[in-house]
Design goal:
199 residues, 11% strand, globular, alpha/beta, two-stranded antiparallel ribbon, 7 helices, 2 domains, homodimer, Dna Topoisomerase Vi A Subunit, Chain: A, domain 2, Helicase, Ruva Protein, domain 3
């Protein structure tokens, strides 16, 4: 073992983070060790506090410090427009875009028969209940174009139809900044299917 | 503010780590929040313990959990061969290579008149004391080829000469995996100067 045990332990923990390999974990651990003791104890506290203090909004499932998130408790958001997301990280992505003024509903997963995840294992019933109490609700399904994402979208479409709810899903297609010749076949196929009439 | 305050605090801390930008810090923070509470408290503890438990070896200055590091207290290392390094991270780099069986001496800095760092501000006197107690000592200076590195190397050469000590420095030259046409001028100049006779 090259590193002292404590340092190796820290490296092993950091390696669990997304996008952090052996080399970056080592650099990060050595840099952490070089921080002041006060900074280290601050970081250590904020880690525990974040885990303890952050919970899911009782209405939409977004990450929040209160029982109800700032979006659900805001007066200026459109309450009858609900964007359905796989997990709470999507909320931050939408909020960053600054282009959306509706509310959210986090499913906390996708239907995946292979993994034994059915409609009852994700937050679909709470979505239906929410929609029943809204006036002229509109649902935007924002799930990724994978088998699980599309299965879930189809399921939602089925359970929400005939309820006078406007339903749409995000368009699938070419992301910004990518050359057509580097696109995978499925994305190209989706972009073709979702093509927009500009005539 | 898009993120809850606690989460933003965590992101701000993670951004201080080397190689971690806004985007990676966000991903890492969200992934940390998703860990089990027990894992979080483990990580938090190990952070504080690492900072408290790791200190500098009293002989060579390498990072260790004990007063004397495993290298200095080992019976199988060559005690009269000393590799001089700028900081303790270099020790791990050498140990990983597995090609070196001597000991180390960490200077904890380089001479830098511009920054007001003189020979007395780094661990040079302790190196001289160590060498005086050794039989036929040999010193390998492993400092980077920068102004500070070369100034320090020259200074060490001056204070150690006429003491019957064999002194060498690492060769400067072309790193593995780099195309010649991408090399900076100084590296190329150094590689030319340090060229090896193979006739």
């Amino acid at each position: 073992m090259i590193y002292p045990k404590l340092l190796q332990g820290l490296i092993d923990y950091l390696k669990k983070l997304p996008g952090v390999g052996e080399k970056s974990a080592e650099r990060m651990a050595l840099s952490l060790i070089n921080m002041d003791a006060s900074e280290i104890s601050d970081l250590s506290n904020i880690l525990v506090l974040s885990k303890k203090g952050l919970k899911k909004c009782e209405i939409c499932g977004a990450l929040t410090e209160d029982n109800i998130c700032t979006i659900c408790s805001s007066d200026t958001r459109e309450k009858n427009l609900i964007c359905v997301l796989e997990d709470f990280k999507g909320v931050f992505a939408f909020e960053k875009s600054g282009k959306y003024n509706g509310c959210y509903h986090v499913l906390d997963g996708l239907i995946s028969p292979i993994d034994g995840i059915g409609p009852d294992d994700i937050n679909i019933s709470s979505l239906i209940k929410r929609l029943e109490n809204l006036n002229n609700p509109e649902v935007i399904i924002a799930l990724k174009p994978s088998i699980e994402g599309e299965t879930t979208t189809l399921y939602l479409k089925k359970v929400l139809e005939n309820k006078n709810i406007k339903i749409s899903r995000l368009s699938y297609g070419i992301p910004v900044g990518v050359d057509i010749d580097y696109l995978d076949e499925l994305t190209l196929f989706n972009a073709l299917n979702d093509r927009k009439d500009i005539s």
